[in-house]
Structures are given as C-alpha cells and as structure tokens.
Amino acid sequence: MAKMQITRGHTDDWPSLFSMDASSNSEYSYKVEISRENDRYGIDLSRFRLPRTIGLSYPKDKATLLNQLSIVEVVLIGKIQNEAIAFTCLDGKVFPDTVQVTDLVVMESARLNGIATILLVAAEKWATERKLHRLFMAIPLRNDPMISLARKLGYSFCGFMSSYFQTSEDALFYEKRIG
Questions:
Q1: Does residue 49 sit within a domain?
Q2: How far is CA 111 from CA 45, 61, 70, 86, 177, in A?
Q3: What is the biggest distance separating any 2 CA atoms in the chain, rounded to whole angstroms?
Q4: Cα 172-175-177 angle, rounded to 5 deg
Q5: pTM of the full predicted structure?
Q6: Which structural domain range is residue 76 located in?
C-alpha cells in the first residue's frame, strides 16, 4: 500500500467522506452486568462470541455526521494518492483536558492495514500539541473490531451508557491518558 498522508479536512472533502461505507461486521459482542449492593456498585464486562457474524451499520445517519463535521475542532483525513480512504473527527472542547474522538471511519477496502492506528496516533499528536492529556471515545457495544483496536492501543474501559447512539445501541466508553 502506498504511503498515506494525513490532512485537515475542509468542506470540499465532505462528499468523499460521505461516500465511504462506514458499516462493519462483528463476530463478538459484550455483555454488561451492573451489580448494586448497599453502597457498592460493580460493572462486569464480558466478551462473547455471537452465533453468526452480524452486520453493523454506522451509528450516525448522514445528517448527523454532516452536523458533526461542522462542529468538531478538526477532521483528520487519511489520503492515498489524493483519495480519501479514512477520517477521524476530534473535539477538544467537550470535556476538560480531553480530546473526544467522535468518529473514526476507514474505507472497507483499506481496513486491516493500520490506517485507523495511524489516525489515532495523529489524534494523540494533535492532543499533545494542544496540551490535552486524555483521548476519549464511545464505541457501540457490538463493534468488537473497534473495541479490540482501542484496547490494543492502550485505551481503558471507563464506562457504559445504554441507548447512547442515535440507533439506540449501547455504548462502551474508552479513554487513553497521554503526556
């Protein structure tokens, strides 16, 4: 694969980002059990194999994604030979000292080549330049490939919310401390 360039996105880039198939597949999901006992709470997060591979639609529709692109601080786009193959949206104004990774999409034909890793490393660099010390992301409960990537890159589970996404899918929250 040719070398990827990372550029800052502009409104001219949005049509190429919308044309990417952001759906994915998963063979695993996670079960969240919350225990409450007197003044103690516990969360048990268990990964389990699904009986069959499931297709996952992107948790945002095009209108929501367009709005997201216009309000985040920066959109980083991965390009090969001037063609957009991936993007991530970053916002450092939502939480204190934190960059929220609101979107991360890699074109299906470019997946499993380290593209998402490169974009998340670029996100860390952007956070460091802004003197922010944490990256945060919400991941759909059934998106095992993204959860596995986050864990591989040193992100830690830090929470759960049911019906978080527009699709009513539950979210697992992951964070990575940097700097």
A1: no
A2: 26, 21, 26, 9, 26
A3: 59
A4: 170
A5: 0.91
A6: 5-22+58-177
Evaluate whether residue 94 is within a structural domain.
Answer: yes
Q: How many domains does the chain have?
A: 1
How far apart are alpha carbons 45 and 176 in whole angstroms? Answer: 18
The verdict on residue 27 lying in a domain is no
User: ∠ CA(79), CA(4), CA(156), 5° rounding?
Assistant: 95
C-alpha to C-alpha distances, 123 to 77, 100, 118, nearest whole angstrom: 11, 10, 9
111: exposed, middle or buried (Cβ count in 10 Å: 0-12, 13-18, 19+): middle
> Residue 54: beta bridge partners?
26
Contacts of 153 (CB under 8 A, 6+ apart): 117, 120, 176
* Sole residue written with tokens 């998340």: 120
pLDDT 10s digit of each residue in the chain, 179 long?
568 999 999 999 999 998 899 999 999 999 999 898 888 888 899 999 999 999 999 888 888 888 888 889 999 999 999 999 999 999 998 888 999 999 999 999 999 999 999 999 999 999 999 999 999 999 999 999 999 999 999 999 999 999 999 889 999 999 999 97
